[in-house]
């Protein structure tokens, strides 16, 4: 049996397609098993949006000063949205609109955030709502300046030399 160049090329293409499919499946499994097990269920949308529209289901987790949001229908291995706690202005909360009750969990609270000039709404149940608000409130003030210890030591040394 003689294998032609076309058959060899088709074989290579099929192997490449198979490898891509396996990689996508592994990525989906990782995203589903690892990310969802570590985070909190959340529904988020970027504003402006029509009432009851553009909500995206996903998972969020806190990593020190950042909140990472992973879309449910995404295969990207990194977070789809990363919010630094220092960049957030908490705009308040509200109850669900009647049009949103069909889409979101009953009893969820919608929190409005402004992140670097972009407004978001995040819908969470009561326990996760308290966690989000606590995380935001425990952030150090933006006005807090962290002094470099080396610079501070140099200032002290200069003032001691001047006093002599």
UniProtKB/TrEMBL annotation:
InterPro entries: DUF2550. Pfam families: DUF2550 (PF10739). It comes from the Bacteria. This is DUF2550 domain-containing protein.
């Amino acid at each position: 049996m003689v294998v032609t160049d076309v058959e060899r090329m088709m074989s290579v293409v099929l192997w490449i397609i198979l490898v891509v499919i396996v990689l996508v499946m592994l990525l989906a499994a990782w995203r589903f098993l690892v990310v969802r097990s570590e985070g909190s269920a959340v529904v988020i949308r970027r504003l402006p949006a029509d009432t009851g529209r553009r909500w995206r289901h996903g998972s969020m987790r806190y990593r020190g000063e950042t909140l990472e949001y992973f879309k449910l229908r995404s295969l990207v291995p990194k977070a789809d949205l990363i919010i630094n706690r220092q960049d957030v202005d908490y705009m308040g909360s509200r109850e669900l609109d009647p049009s949103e009750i069909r889409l979101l969990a009953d009893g969820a609270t919608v929190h409005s955030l402004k992140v670097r000039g972009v407004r978001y709404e995040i819908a969470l149940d009561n326990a996760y709502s308290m966690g989000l608000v606590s995380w935001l409130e425990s952030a150090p003030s933006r006005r807090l300046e962290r002094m470099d210890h080396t610079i501070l030591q140099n200032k002290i040394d200069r003032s001691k030399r001047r006093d002599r």
